[in-house]
Amino acid sequence: MIIGIDDTDSNDGMCTTYLGALLLDELQAYGTLETLPLLIRLNPTIPYKTRGNAAVALKIRTDCPEKVTAHVVSRIEELAHMECEKTNPGVVFIPENDYDRLKPVLGNFFEKAVKDVIEIQEAKTLISELGIPSKGFKNGRGLIGSLAACGAMLNLEAWDHTFEYLAYRQKESWGTPREVEKESFFEADRKTYPGTWDTVDLKSRQVVCVPHSGDPVLFGIRGENPAIVAEAASLIRAEPIERFAVYRTNQGTDMHLLSVTSFAEIQDMHSYRLEGTVQAIPRTITGGHVIFPIRDEEGNEIDCAAFEPTKNFRLLIRKLRPGDKVELSGSVSSRTLNIEKIEIKTLTPLYKEENPICPNCGKHMKSSGRAQGFRCKKCGTHAVSKITCEIKRDLVAGLYEVPPCARRHLAKPLVREQKSNVNIFPAR
């Protein structure tokens, strides 16, 4: 059977992946886990998410499904932060004899949950119509992610994978400052990058894979395969851990991005890949955010933003000028695209007027007075007017990304890009 679980955490603590890791060990008393567990990130723009908007799925072969179901439900009741208004757990159980029947419909549901907005009733209706065993707690919003995670497990061949090694703290340490040796994370990065990424941010000297909330996670190493994330984790020096789990994930895949033919189709709470032309010099607003508009071929415009947490990425954005052709990736809120990546496709030429150059000595001439042209004092040569020169742009066409400290879970890091004939500039 496949088990999907979502929404057991809160802003203050707990973590659905921790429950998944706990069940990985405990359910072995009832059967055999058949594959790596899944950690699925859903639409990152959903306003009622708790923290990372993640669901998990486990696949187990068992002769006692009733005992498995009872155990999972009891663990959710025990560990989920039910007292939090935003915590509304859900769990779904897919029997093996239903795999083929449910694979296409839940595969579509999974993709929709990552890219679109799904209401609770839609998930409940689907469960009722298809006769899927499930249990919702409180308003049951977690049933959305639970169904999506099951759809992902049923369709492993249909989506891009990365992996994350998650280490969990001993329970008595929850809510206290994490004890980690910062330099060991930089060592792990040096030895495993680019097979791993987003462990550290070199420019800001930050460790970015250690959370700061009260949840059970000590650190999470993301990478291309289970072996490389385990190698990186083995180099970390930190407080003792209770347990760990390696999850297969859709993190770092750009799975959330939609394509549109017209900016008129853009909706809030969705993520896009947009191509357009810069319409104005980027401006810095209160808070340090950098904003500029782009226009599509139909004349529709949308504002794009490099927000303050993107740090030095804003220096790049400030170099854009009207006429530059760009492709942007990011999520839309309040009709503004929060930039995750930018491909600068072409740079518009910029020009300035300057005094003419003497053909003999190569130096700029001086003005001879109002309406009297220009003269080289050394050579005596004359010219009638100023000349127009192209300004060298302090910018190179290519693909750029926000730094690791500002990267969203689903955004594909440039070390994973395989574009040909494009300059790629990974943020490190």
Automatic annotation (TrEMBL):
Task: Give one Pfam family.
Answer: tRNA_anti-codon
Which BP terms from GO are recorded?
tRNA wobble cytosine modification
Q: Which reaction does it catalyse?
A: cytidine(34) in tRNA(Ile2) + agmatine + ATP + H2O = 2-agmatinylcytidine(34) in tRNA(Ile2) + AMP + 2 phosphate + 2 H(+)
Residues forming the TiaS FLD domain are: 140-256
GO MF: ATP binding; ligase activity, forming carbon-nitrogen bonds; nucleic acid binding
GO cellular component labels? cytoplasm
Name where it mostly resides: cytoplasm
The organism's superkingdom is given as: Archaea
> Which residue range or ranges hold the TiaS-like TCKD domain?
2-61
Q: Where is it located?
A: Cytoplasm
- Gene3D superfamilies per the UniProt record, alphabetical: 2.40.50.1010, 3.30.70.2200, 3.90.600.20
Looking at the record, the residues that make up the TiaS C-terminal zinc ribbon domain are 355-395
What's its EC?
A: 6.3.4.22
- Which ranges carry the OB domain? 273-338
**What InterPro entries would the database entry show?**
NA-bd_OB_tRNA, TiaS-like_TCKD, TiaS_FLD, tRNA_Ile2__agm2C_synt, Zn_ribbon_TiaS
Record's keyword terms, sorted: ATP-binding, Cytoplasm, Ligase, Nucleotide-binding, tRNA processing
Query: Main EC class of this protein?
Result: ligase
Q: What does this protein do?
A: ATP-dependent agmatine transferase that catalyzes the formation of 2-agmatinylcytidine (agm2C) at the wobble position (C34) of tRNA(Ile2), converting the codon specificity from AUG to AUA.
> What family is this?
Belongs to the TiaS family.
Q: What is this protein called?
A: tRNA(Ile2) 2-agmatinylcytidine synthetase TiaS
Supply the source organism for this entry.
Methanosarcina thermophila
Protein encoded by which gene: tiaS
